[in-house]
Amino acid sequence: MIALVTGASKGIGTACARALSGAGHRVALVSRDRGALGAVAASLPGESLVVPADLLDPVAIEAAFDRVEAEWGAVEILVLNAGVSMSAPLVRTSDEDWQRMLDLNLTAPFRCVRRAVPAMRAGGWGRIVVIASTAARIGEPYIAAYAASKHGVLGLVRSAAAELARTGITVNAVCPGYADTPMTDGTVARIAAVSGRTEENARQALERKQPIGRLIAPGEVADAVWFCVSAAAVTGQGINVDGGTVQ
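RESULT FIELD:
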């Protein structure tokens, strides 16, 4: 099978790429960081393709799919991990902040899904998995723009799944809690800067928000992605990987 993973240069995206490669799939690695993608490609056990692309650019999305199709064939497994977070009080969230969250966390996945579906439908099989967040399931203070974008992408997943249910294509979301990733490192740094805590204390506060008392490992999120890829009767779901935070 041919897989394409966005945001593949680090964290959850890299873990997903490794899981898919380890299962014998060819994996196209997409992000803006060509150098990091090359390092990930070198670490995979199977065949990979480095596809640098800025997903904020619709032309770049088209070009990424075009390249994979030209070199390997149609994308059959699509894992949409690229995303960005931010936190700010609602009244200090600018129009630019709001739009940036929507552009990368919602519009870019929509464009990728729209681009992938025709070939999947023609082949009678496809798997689409979006990495969302527990912020797709609940609201929290100071993340209005981020939560809105993640709630939106879960709506996209559910609607696409319903529309494609009889085509052989499944569409699901995986909703991690706070994971041990560079994105969470950024959150920790912001909390420390605003609160005056040490970064160690800020990280411990995030760990305590999850009933298991620790951050989620990227590989644990990749396990849920693999479940979505392998389970033919699971579609339209938002699967929490959050240590019991959202029940």
